[in-house]
Design a protein that fits this description.
Its main location: periplasm. By secondary structure, this protein is α/β, with parallel strands linked by helices. Helix content is about 45%, strand content about 20%. The strands form 2 sheets. Strands 2-1-3-4-5-11 form a 6-stranded parallel β-sheet, with helices on both faces. It has a 6-stranded mixed β-sheet with strand order 7-6-8-9-10-12, with helices on both faces.
Length: about 325
């Protein structure tokens, strides 16, 4: 009888071990869940980030939870929802960067890893929250590439710097905007455009009407010798407005080079057969979506925290000659 009882205990232990082993395997098979929250889910830019984050999820074997967060209330609720659904971390482009402290507090309360993309959080004093991992555009470097593209096209057209002037629409209240236009001006000067041929036009609003007004105020300062114009600004709309102002002032498209930054706001203009708006520096939402999702996944699974700042300066000049093909490559053409 003792022998039989011992055998039963042994069998029970084996069975228990087997069950626990199967349970462990089942738990191990559950994929890691990572959130990806964006402020304007309907925009092609964020659709592309999502699509390539999904690509990373399939390659790495994690589950991507995509949530639109158009306002602060939905943002904080979404973070609770991620935690309730077993997520371990998330990437976010917040609807308002001043929500940073509240988002960080909510993430910590739910024990979630957090990384920002595109827009960097600011604290109550308006300072960047540099302790939160962030991946975004290298503003000065991208501005330099914009300026180089402008100078390159001017050279291609055979423009003489003596009768060429640049109107740079600025919005220095926004650090990113100032860095972009500073970079653009830096490149134009290095290309040989004289300092006194660059006119800065401060904008009151960051839209097409605002840049039209700023450019109009600058055009009256041009000398009579001004034949050719370069129009710059921190994004597509600031340049589009500037180009509109040159049209109203009688400048022909052949005598204007406007190059924006972003690409997605320039599609309608580039569809036109001719315009002083020559092109735009198209960033890389596909790279940003895939890279940030991968970074958070690796942080969750290996403990490797992303850098506090990952600068993205990969941009492509899109013009009437190539914009459709370049947008198709990354899913932004529709």
């Amino acid at each position: 009888m003792p022998l039989i009882k011992g055998f039963r205990v042994f069998c029970g232990a084996v069975a228990t071990t087997a069950v626990l082993g199967w349970a462990g395997q089942a738990l191990a098979a559950d994929p890691v869940k990572i959130g990806f929250l964006v402020k304007q889910a309907e925009e092609p830019w964020f659709q592309t980030e999502w699509a390539f984050a999904e690509k990373a999820a399939k390659e790495k074997g994690f589950t991507l939870l995509k949530i639109a967060v158009p306002d602060g209330e939905k943002t904080l609720a979404a973070i609770d929802s991620l935690a309730a659904n077993g997520a371990k971390g998330f990437v976010i482009c917040a609807p308002d960067v001043s929500l940073g402290p509240a988002i960080v507090a909510k993430a910590k309360a739910n024990d979630l890893k957090l990384m920002t993309v595109d827009d960097r959080f600011v604290d109550a004093k308006g300072n960047f929250m540099e302790d939160v991992p962030y991946l975004g555009m290298a503003a000065f470097e991208v501005g330099q590439k914009q300026g180089q593209a402008m100078a390159g096209e001017a050279k291609h057209r055979g423009w003489d710097w003596n009768d060429t002037y640049a109107v740079i629409n600025t919005y220095n209240e926004l650090d990113t905007g100032k860095k972009r236009t500073d970079g653009s001006v830096d490149a134009l000067k290095k290309a040989g455009l004289p300092d006194d041929h660059i006119i800065f036009a401060p904008q009151k609003t960051l839209d097409v009407p605002g840049s039209m007004d700023a450019t109009n105020s600058a055009l009256v300062k041009l000398p009579s010798a001004a034949k050719n114009l370069i129009i710059g600004g921190m994004n597509d709309n600031t340049v589009l407005g500037g180009v509109r102002a040159t049209e109203s002032a009688g400048f022909k498209a052949a005598n204007v080079i406007g190059i924006g930054i972003n690409g997605t706001d320039a599609i309608g203009e580039l569809k036109k057969p001719d315009s002083g708006f020559f092109g735009s520096m198209l960033p890389s939402p596909h790279i940003e979506g895939e890279r940030t999702a991968t970074m958070v996944y690796e942080w969750v699974t290996t403990g490797k925290e992303p850098p506090k700042y990952t600068a993205m300066d990969e941009v492509t000049l899109i013009t009437r000659a190539n914009f459709k093909q370049e947008l198709e490559k990354i899913g932004l053409w529709n």
